[in-house]
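Budget justification aside, the reviewers requested a transparent look at the raw inputs and outputs of the sequence design task funded under Objective 1. We therefore reproduce one unedited record. The lines immediately below are the structure tokens for a 536-residue chain.
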């Protein structure tokens, strides 16, 4: 997600509260099971599609058609709060699909890109998806690309990302969706485990994502998509979710390729530890059981969920997520589909900018070692020796490099390495050092290519220099052709080799090399002594 990150460092890498919180800057009546009348369609000339639940009428545009606000699951409200998603109700008539569904409950979060919740009013009734198709007719089935938004599992929406340009330029069907966030998506509690026939609790947001994938398999053919050629892709928490689905037994046969942007491999808590946290959180609300929590309003739960000690994230429960992602990859226990993954060259600089310049202060030379010690404790001396200020233009760039390498670059390099013996594994680094210039942010150091900056290049939303526009076209081509064939290629773009080669995506040139682990000092950050730092 722009301005957020997934996961947390290991114990020796514990970040200070201000860093951990960066970037994540009443119940409705349940619908009856079947036969509800749809809201009447208002766009008389809009395209109409028949899904297994009823007809939807979307909006026609010159290059792409859109169908938004389609329910893929029943509203998780009332007694269904903290329950796995159930199928949506059918409807009669033609449902208007020109207005997005509401985003899931979340705090208003300001980022350089705007409010990540997108349009609408955050609500528990939020399990809606959007479909974008090329306006041009095609007799052939098109590849399907299902986007999973980021936001640290606490903010964001599918609607924030318009898939129209990607669909039109890439000749693909693009789907995005909302999923439950924060406490509503990831509360684990013993009472919830006792309600589950499998003894599970938490991971409701992840189950929502899997319900959306099932809806795609069942319905996307009606939109011209190929249900047997589905690619899941996402960034930050969305990229992490992609890797969660790669190792989840519940998603077998639900997708055919995967793209993880800036988010694969972060370690997750166990269900037991999350349940302990859930009990403590419930106690802070004066609740001894889940029944008490279900009686609370959404607003009250949201306010309590923003406590700095709360951590809302998927958990390793032995069923939905049997293992940590890296453990599953190391043992080959994941879906053997082609995977494309990577990071941006300056992931951590946006974190630094948010903590300092955008908060009205600047990181000084004296403050740099203080920040490193606060984040990494007794490892600080070794880190400072490898990231001396003399090698960077500013203290902010030095701290940004530490965050980039420790939190993103080396972890993603490791997951690409672990997948390579089992499937086609491709890695990239996005390196447009001027990708954020268009925002004119009041920052005292070069922001470079920070976390989230590659997204608009993939979605075809760049209007920059000729070189930036060309890079966007090539990246969109790489991504959509990977979705089409399992091999990333693009017109007028260099060949993309398998890992350990890493494709560097920059406006000046697209290049390939094997020095990524050395460039990011991954020997310092590796948690696995068997992980090679050079390619054989």
């Amino acid at each position: 997600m722009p301005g957020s990150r997934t996961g947390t460092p290991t114990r020796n890498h514990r970040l200070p509260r201000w860093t951990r919180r960066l970037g994540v800057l009443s119940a409705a009546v349940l619908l009856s099971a079947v036969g509800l009348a749809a809201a009447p369609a208002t766009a008389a000339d809009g395209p109409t599609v028949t899904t297994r639940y009823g007809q939807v009428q979307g909006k026609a545009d010159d290059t792409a058609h859109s169908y938004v606000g389609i329910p893929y699951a029943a509203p998780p409200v009332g007694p269904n709060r903290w329950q796995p998603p159930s199928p949506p109700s059918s409807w009669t008539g033609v449902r208007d699909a020109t207005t997005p569904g509401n985003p899931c409950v979340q705090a208003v979060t300001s980022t350089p890109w705007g409010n990540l919740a997108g349009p609408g009013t955050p609500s528990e009734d939020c399990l809606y998806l959007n479909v974008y198709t090329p306006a041009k007719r095609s007799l052939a089935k098109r590849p399907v690309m299902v986007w999973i938004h980021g936001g640290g599992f606490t903010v964001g929406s599918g609607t924030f990302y318009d898939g129209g340009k990607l669909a039109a330029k890439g000749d693909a069907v693009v789907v995005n969706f909302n999923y439950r966030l924060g406490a509503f998506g990831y509360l684990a509690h013993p009472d919830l485990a006792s309600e589950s026939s499998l003894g599970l609790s938490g991971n409701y947001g992840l189950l929502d994502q899997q319900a959306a994938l099932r809806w795609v398999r069942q319905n996307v053919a009606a939109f011209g998509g190929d249900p047997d050629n589905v690619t899941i892709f996402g960034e930050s928490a969305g990229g992490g979710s992609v890797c969660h689905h790669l190792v989840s037994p519940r998603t077998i046969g639900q997708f055919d390729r995967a793209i993880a942007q800036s988010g694969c491999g972060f370690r997750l808590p166990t269900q037991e530890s999350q349940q302990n946290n859930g009990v403590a959180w419930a106690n802070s609300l004066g609740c001894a059981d889940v029944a008490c929590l279900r009686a609370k309003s959404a607003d009250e739960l949201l306010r309590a969920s923003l406590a700095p000690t709360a951590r809302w994230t998927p958990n390793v429960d032995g069923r939905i997520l049997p293992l940590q992602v890296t453990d599953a990859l190391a043992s080959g226990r994941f879906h053997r589909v082609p995977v494309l993954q990577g990071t941006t060259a300056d992931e951590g600089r946006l974190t630094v900018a948010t903590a300092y310049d955008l908060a009205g202060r600047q990181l000084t030379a004296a403050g740099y070692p203080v920040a490193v010690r606060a984040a990494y404790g007794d490892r600080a001396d070794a880190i400072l020796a490898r990231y001396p200020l003399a090698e960077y233009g500013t203290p902010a760039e030095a701290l940004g490099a530490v965050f980039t390498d420790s939190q993103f670059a080396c972890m993603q390099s490791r997951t690409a390495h672990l997948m390579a013996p089992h499937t086609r594994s491709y890695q990239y680094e996005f390196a447009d050092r001027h990708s954020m210039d268009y925002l004119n942010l009041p920052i005292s150091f070069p922001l470079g290519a920070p976390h989230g900056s590659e997204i608009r290049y993939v979605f075809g939303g760049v209007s920059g220099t000729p070189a930036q526009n060309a890079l966007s076209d090539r990246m969109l081509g790489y991504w959509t052709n990977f979705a089409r064939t399992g091999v990333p290629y693009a017109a007028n773009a260099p060949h993309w080799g398998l890992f350990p080669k890493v494709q560097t995506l920059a406006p000046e040139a697209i290049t390939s090399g094997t020095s990524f682990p050395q460039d990011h000092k991954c020997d310092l950050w590796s948690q696995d002594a068997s992980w090679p730092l050079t390619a054989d």
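Residues 1-43, 528-536 have pLDDT under 50 and may be disordered. The chain is about 30% helix and 15% strand. Computational costs for records of this kind are itemized in the attached budget.
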